[in-house]
Amino acid sequence: MTDRARIERIKNLDINYQPLRGPRPMSYDYELDEALGLIDELDESPTREEYVSRCLGPQQIGGRYRCGYWGQDYRVVAIDRGDDERWWSITVQWDDGRTTNHCTAWDETNDRVISQPE
To answer: pLDDT tens digits for 45-63?
Structure first.
């Protein structure tokens, strides 16, 4: 079956074809979405700054948050947004006094804001 025939067959099916959102794998079929008229609806890949902001979520220096995974509260001590050669990271002080540095993204489902800095 030729690509054109495959595209026409998909167009004629009674299905709700949805394009893949966000960053797409190397094997993604751009031509199919373009042929189906969906290419304009695709999300652009986020810039590095947008990606880091999404990972940090609402966290700000001086803010207090609850980590749903560990079930503990912490205060943000520092945020390093990195650059092209370094990855971003966040430094937090846990309620038990430990200070750790990590690059785990904010989990909207389980993490929560206790207080934001003024």
So the answer is: 667 888 888 889 999 999 9
